Amino acid sequence: MSIKTKNLAIKDLILWDENARFPDKYFNTDETELISYFLSKPDFKIKPLTEAIVKDFDLPQLEKLIVWNDSGQHIVLEGNRRLTAYKLLNDPELTQDSSLKKILYELKATVNISDTYNLECLVTDNKEDGFRYIDRKHANGNNEVNWQDSERAHYNVRRGSKNQGELLKIGITKIVKELDLPEEMKDQILGSGYVTTFFRIITTTPAKREYGYAITETGELIIRDPNFNEKLKIIIYSVLNKKDVKGNDVDSRSLNKTEKIEEFIKSVNVEDSKKVDEEIQKNTREDIFGVKTVSIAAGSKKQKILPKSTNRSYLIPSSCRLSILETKINNIYLELRNDLLLDDSPKAVPNAVGVLFRVFLEISIDYFLEKEGINLPIETKLAGKITKCCDILETKSIATKNQMVNIRKVATDKNHILCIQNFHDYIHSYKTQPSSGDLKLKWDNLEEFFQILWDYSYKKAASKN
Question: Per mean pLDDT, which range of 105-114, 122-131, 252-261 is the poorest?
């Protein structure tokens, strides 16, 4: 990959008119029109962004712009909002909004910015390399994990932005972690899905009044109720179970008003902690290695027993949803998913499904390779195409080696049920007839590959529109 870090002046950087944020009609339009479009959409938050840039003007750039060097033109593939903000700070006349213009001039007066102000960029001559950064940030969320409430509270306190609410959350989080409860329950209640409801209950005015919270001058939480820990166990159990020990609903819908929360808080009886202990004991399992697990979360008691994966009427299960922009390939996918029966009835068409499955496999890979700009020799067989496709997906970190194991078996393992020869025989052998069960089993083993390939292809195509 050829990409270099380089400082480029604002005047030498160009907004990308094919950016996914711009509708098609903005292709090949003047930069002032692109800036006007950005400003016309409040969701793009250009004004707050310019204010944030000025506020932290003394800090180094956190993110570099991704720039494509197109025959000497430096087009910004990633970072168009930021570039727009810098251009407006440099030249407030780029907007016709008089009130915004006034604000921009006031902001500009506080910083040293001009046409020659440099921004740190990652510059590449290969547009595809630039797209990899876009994929990582916008398609894959940069592989970041958002902070939970307790983590935000810890950050604010450690940074010095203390307030009573954050100190209360930190204090209760500490108590939760020290409770005599299975670690799984502690992790669940403080994790996504439950923590919002939990803190809504435990930090509201009724709870403060009932349990006697107080924050000392040193930021420590004091609780006057001597039975608080036992009651907290009951609350945690109720939130995870979405019902209290009496069977009443305890979730975000049932506790949507302060009076409902107060009613729940008043109903928490310390004697019920014994019932909670019994439920935990009842739902604890120990494996042959002595490792214990507990399942208290709502719906975990009566686990649904799933049918055999091949117990369906079509090759592709209804749960598999692929977004395919190419019309013919999408039609084949829909026929395999919705039209061509693959059950035990006389109307089942396993031969037709086998042939079309083989076609779907090859043209999916052909489409992917073409869009990646890969031109293989005309004599390359399907096995070679599969190998090349897997290599690209792994090299670009779109898929892991483990995720590609089954599709690689198609190309390389002559003795495996997934072997490519079996697919060939569906078309070329006048003796080989596929069974419904075998076809469904093959799809189940290859579904992850198709999902990865078409998710990536769809997002890549969408980023260009």
Answer: 252-261
Dist CA 439 CA 354 (whole Å): 7
- Each residue's pLDDT tens digit, 392-414: 999 999 989 889 999 999 988 88
217 SS3 class: coil
65: Cβ–Cβ under 8 A, 6 or more apart, which residues?
8, 13, 76, 78, 79, 82, 83, 119, 120, 121, 122
Query: 406-418 in b/e burial notation, b at 16+ Cβ within 10 A?
Result: bbbbbbeeeeeeb
End-to-end CA distance of the chain: 25
What stretches of 225-297 show up as alpha helix (H) in DSSP?
A: 228-241, 258-267, 273-282
What structural domains does the chain harbor?
3-143 (no CATH), 149-294 (no CATH), 327-464 (1.20.120)
Q: How far apart, in whole angstroms, are the C-alpha atoms of residue 213 and residue 150?
A: 18
Global confidence as pTM: 0.39
What does the pLDDT look like over 182-200, one tens digit per residue?
A: 887 888 888 767 888 888 8
Do residues 356 and 332 touch, judged by C-beta distance below 8 A? yes
